[in-house]
Amino acid sequence: MDRKSFIKKYIAIFIVAIIGVVILSIMVKYSVEGETNVPFKISKIMIISTAGGTEKEESTTKWNLKLLQSNDIYIDIIKNKNYSEEEIIDKIIIDNFKIERKPIQGNVNIYKPNTGIFNNKEEYKIDNELVYVGDETSNIENLKIANQGGLILFRCVNENLGNYISDVDEEIKHDGTILGKIGLSNEEIKFSISFDIRVELKSGKKYKAEVEAKMPSGNLIEEGTTNYQINENDIVFKR
Questions:
Q1: CA 219 to CA 189: how far, in whole Å?
Q2: CA neighbours closer than 13 Å in the CB half-sphere of residue 203
Q3: Are 90 and 40 within 8 A, CB to CB?
Q4: What is the pLDDT of residues 68-84, one digit of tens each?
């Protein structure tokens, strides 16, 4: 091979290598930052944590409560003002639920809202997915979200934490402090879940974000109720 051919060969290899590096950097950037201009985005995810108990039937004591710890997850979906085209929400799907960290005490179940509140019955348990359908206005009871953005929610419950039995207390608070009465610690009830948020539009466009939520936040045993939020910058949508 003459010198001229040798130089051309290595110039070609160099160019291919540069193109490969550029493509790889674009892929890495996309995996971290996702879509830069989505039609709808999540302004925040708020998680409010507390605890309580349900009265056991045919109790012979003043208080005989089966204790649980609940976490209400509010997801605020808003229209992106920087997106110039007109889009309409067809549905919002929450799925691919995984318990990333199990609590030391209790077991975790996920529930959809019922008549604007939560009822921890088997019929409201979410096994696979939770679907909010786009409509003219939001209606949480009927699992509808306004087609230009709105609020959706679901609940994660750590159940079977134990029983609180007493004839002494005149009053009790149905919040996190009741868990301390049976000797539970914050560390024993902490857990985390992950899930996907899918935004499907009438135009056929689809976006997905993966979210991980750690619950409950703070010192629930002493404070009774705690909350924290996952901000917009921590939520990445991809096609």
A1: 11
A2: 10
A3: no
A4: 999 999 999 999 998 98
